[in-house]
Amino acid sequence: MLKIKDLHVDLEEETKTILKGVDLEVEAGKVHAIMGPNGSGKSTLSYVLSGRDGYEVTKGSATLEGDDLLEMEPEERAAAGLFLAFQYPVEIPGVGNMTFLRTAVNAQRKARGEDEMSAADFLKMVRARAKDLKIDADMLKRPVNVGFSGGEKKRNEILQMAVLEPKMCILDETDSGLDVDAMKLVAEGVNALRNEGRGFLVITHYQRLLDHIKPDVVHIMAEGRIVKSGGPELALEVENNGYADILAEMA
Amino acid sequence: MALDDRRQSVTDERLSAMVVPDVGCTAEARQAALGRVRSLGLPQGRDEYWKFTRPDTLVQPDAPAASIFKDDETPVFDSFDRLKIVFVDGVFAPDLSDDLSLEGVEIDRLEDVCCTDDHWAEELYGTLEAAGQTPVARPLAALNTAYAGDGVTIRVTGKPSKPISLIYTHEAEDSDVFLHHVIRVESGAEATILENGPAAARFNKCMEIDIADTGILHHIRAQGRDHQRRAVTHMFARLGRESVFKSFTLTANGVLTRNECVIELTGDDALAHVAGACVGDGDFHHDDTVFVTHDAVNCESRQVFKKVLRNGATGVFQGKILVKEGAQKTDGYQISQSLLLDDDSQFLAKPELEIYADDVVCSHGSTSGAIDEDGMFYLRARGVPKPIATDLLTLAFLAEAVEEIENEDLRDEINTRLQSWLERRRG
After folding, report:
1. pLDDT digits over B246-264, tens only?
2. In angstroms, rounded to a whole number, what is the distance separating the alpha carbons of residues B159 and B163?
3. In this structure, what DSSP letter does residue A91 have?
4. Nearest to A160 among B373, B382, B386 (CB)
5. Which of A75, A94, A108 sits opposite B396 (nearest CB)?
6. Per the CB < 8 Å rule, is A90 touching B399?
7. Residue B399 lies in a domain
8. Is residue B340 in a domain?
9. What pTM value is reported for the model?
C-alpha cells in the first residue's frame, strides 16, 4: 500500500534536515504505529506524505500502490486515496461542514473520473456515518470546526475519513487533547474503518491510544529515522521505560 | 469662507449643468442644500476624506458612460416575498412595482410628498443630511438633497409582513441619477429594507433614516452587475433609545463605489451594526467611509468590513467612532480587513477613534493578508482543488461580515449569491 524508501527531507526555509532516511512499508489491512520523542520527525513525515508546502525531499521515494506520491499535488494524493487526520484541524468559518464534505467527496470522485454523488444519497450516507461517531445534525450544519471542542474536532476528522473512504489513513497525534472517553469514541470510529483493503499509519506519543487501536507493527522514530520496529509489545516497552533505553541501545 | 479657484470652478461647472426640480414642500430644504454645496464646494482629491478615492468622475458634469452588463443571472432577492419598488435609471416605474400599500407601513413617492401638505417627511427631508455635514463635509450628499429627481418616503408604523425591496435597474448607458429616500421607523415598529441593482451609469443615492425609540430597521443591500457603473451613496441614520439599526452591503463589480454611512446614536441603549463584504476584480475601486457618533449612554456599535481584492483592485476603508462626552458605557467595535489575492491589489485603511468619555470599551483593527495557508492545505488534503479551496476560504474570510445579517434566509441568499459570483469568476 504505502512504501517509503530512504526518504530524506529538509526544511525549505532553513538548512535543516528533518528526515534522514526513513524506510517504511504499510501493507493493506495493517495498522502501523509510529512513536517517538518530540522533534523526531513524526509530524514532518505525515506532512511530506500529504504534500504540505515548506519541505524539500532531497532523496528517496514514497509511493501509494505504486504511484509516486511526491509528484502529486495534495488534492491528487487525496483523490488517490491518501488521508491525513490532522493534529490541529483547521477552522473554516462561513463554510458549512456538510458543504465542505460534499465539495471534498465530489472533487475526489471527479478527479477519479466517477460521477458526482446525488445530494440525497450523500446526505443519507453522511448521516449514517455521523450517527456512528455521535455527531449530531447540528455539528454537520455548523461551519467547519468553528467552535468545536477538541473532541468534536477529532471526531469530525474521523467522520471525514469515513465519508471519503481512503485507502491509506495517516493519523497525526489524533489522541492529543482528548479525554479518555473522547479518545475511546475516536478509536472506535477508526476501528470501524479497519478492513482488508485499508492501511493505517498511527502517529502517537503515547501507548494509551494503541490500547484502543491495536497496531500490527510499532515503529520507533528518532532523529529522522526509524530506529526500531516490532510488535505491539514495543509500545508497552516505551510506556514503561520511556525512549531512553531504546535510544541508548541504538547508540 | 471663499472656495479656492479650482474648487469654485469645478463646483460652478457642475451646478450650471443642473436644475433644482420644482418641488413644492421640499423646495426650502433643496435650496438650503444647494447653499451647502456652494459653501462647501464639491470634493477634490486633496481633501482629507478623498485621498484614497478620486472624486473626479463623481463630480464632473457628465456621467462617464457605463455599458449594461447582460447576463442570465436571477436578480438578488428574486425568490423572496417582498414589496417591490422599481426605479429604472432613477425613475419610479409603477408598472414594474407592486402596489405600495402594505399593513404597518406608509410608502409614498417623493414627488407626491412634495405636493402634500403636512407630510411627515417634510421635516426630515435634508435634515439628517445637513446634520451629517459636520464634523466631516459630505458635499455629494448635499448635492443629492438639492437635485434628487425621485425617491420614496417610508414610514414604518407597525411590523410589515414582508421586506420593502428597492430595485434599481439600469438601461441607459449615460444615465446620471439622484435618488433620495426618507425613512422613519416609529416607536416599536420593525421593518426590513432591501436594495439591489446597478441603478445607473452614475448613481448618487441618499437615504435619511430616523429610528424612534425602540424602533428596529434591517437594511440589506446588494450592489453588483454592471462593471462600469459608478456610485456614491450616503446613509444618514439617527437612532433613538433602545432602537436597532443593522445594515449590510454586498458589493461586486462596478468601477467605482463610495458608500458613506453616518450614524448618530442619540438615545440610550441603542444598537447600530454596519457591515460590508466586497469582492473586487481589476479596475474595481470600493470605498467604505463610516462615521459613528455615540451621543448617549450604553450604546453598542459595530463596523465589520471585509474586502477580497485581486488583479489590481483597490479597497478603501475610512471608519471612525466618535464617543462624545457623557456617552458612558459605550461599546464600540470596528474591524476592516482585506484579503489580497495577488500583489497588484491594494487596501487602504484609516481607522479612527475619538473618545471623550472615560468609561467605554472601543476596539478597532485593520489587517491585510493573503489566503490562509493552513486552511488551504487542509482543504487540498481533503481533495478540494486549489481554485475551489480559494473560493471556500474567500467565503470564510467574508463570513464575519455576512453573519451580521440577522435573518437566516436573507443571509443564505447573500451567501449563495457570493458563491455563484465566485464560481462564475472561476470560470
Report:
1. 999 999 988 999 999 999 9
2. 10
3. P
4. B382
5. A94
6. no
7. no
8. yes
9. 0.90
